[in-house]
């Protein structure tokens, strides 16, 4: 963790003095509005990691005053959440986003919504935040303010709710899933007993979240270097059964992480769920994934269409049919299922990486010029020739393919 000197300061970070940041801070300071960094950018700076793309800033100034001060200096402002005291300033090239929120306290909460007042001080604002490590403030000169003990928790890799965990989750149920995501990224592995007890007691509230929100948190969790300990906690706490009852293969996911060439949350999800292709597609549908992700996840369900025992020619045919991404993913899933050796996996991954699939030399026009009218038979003939071409290890040239097409087209029963 970054060194804090005897004056309670860290070294000023590059992102704190870049022109965009200075422009926003200068606009607020010109109107007498105090400003401190807070949230992910402070947490990540203290951990000496890459900061989030957005920089969070807190200020006692009301949101209308913030807008006035920023616009006076020609900074673009978007009123992203005026009811909650949040505006977004956009400055710099390339544009940097600054989420600027007025110090506030919650008067009433409604799951993911709240009625707030803008009369809190710094300690009061910290008291309504989710985790202690997200409630550390940082002055523009590097002075650290730690009203709820976030520094100690950050140092100990302890994810701890601010105050009463059950109350924090009651204010925003999404915090329950965020807890495990933060455990996956920042935790030491065992979890906080009070936090986990609160999560167990409130897991029944999770169906009230939108599928998109659940999917977003799940994907971010799976992007952690090793999400298995957090997922294990979710399983033990009855949370995983609520949001993803198909998640029965932590063992396979653990092996996937050990062998994968790069982090891929969707492939990790395919390793985690114990379903066939239709079941995988149903999971994607339930989580409201994009069409591309639905198709991809559905294509990774068992039974898998690669036989690692087949020779190189057969592997090329399978690779041509599946495409490099799906072929690679399925090979990794089979290996994680302990269905092939490390050496064989390396050979298949190298094939997917290095082999350039040839382009089939015929088109539909080649069929219609033979006098065959447009229609289903054109596609059937093309596929028949393409299958013949692939079975010959893609060696036949255009002339040979045309000859095979003429041969097949002359036999109505063949296509």
Question: What descriptors fit this protein?
Answer:
single chain, 415 residues, alpha+beta, Beta Polymerase, domain 2, Hydrophobic Seed Protein, 4 domains, 7-stranded mixed β-sheet, two-stranded antiparallel ribbon, 9 strands, 10% strand
Description:
The chain has 415 residues and is an alpha+beta fold. The chain has four domains: 1-156, Beta Polymerase, domain 2 (2-Layer Sandwich), CATH 3.30.460.10; 164-235, Hydrophobic Seed Protein; 246-357, no CATH class; 364-414, no CATH class. It contains 22 helices and nine strands. The strands form two sheets. It has a seven-stranded mixed sheet. Strands 6-7 form a two-stranded antiparallel ribbon. β8 and β9 form a beta hairpin. α13 (250-259) runs antiparallel to α14. The chain starts with 13 loop residues before the first helix and ends in a 6-residue tail after the last helix.
Strand numbers in spatial order across the main sheet: 3-4-5-2-1-8-9
CATH class identity of the largest domain: Alpha Beta
Total beta strand runs = 9
Residue runs with pLDDT of under 50 for 5 or more positions:
none
Overall pLDDT confidence:
93
What class do helices, strands and sheet pairing give?
Answer: alpha+beta
CATH architecture of the largest domain: 2-Layer Sandwich
Count of helical segments? 22
End-to-end separation: 68 Å
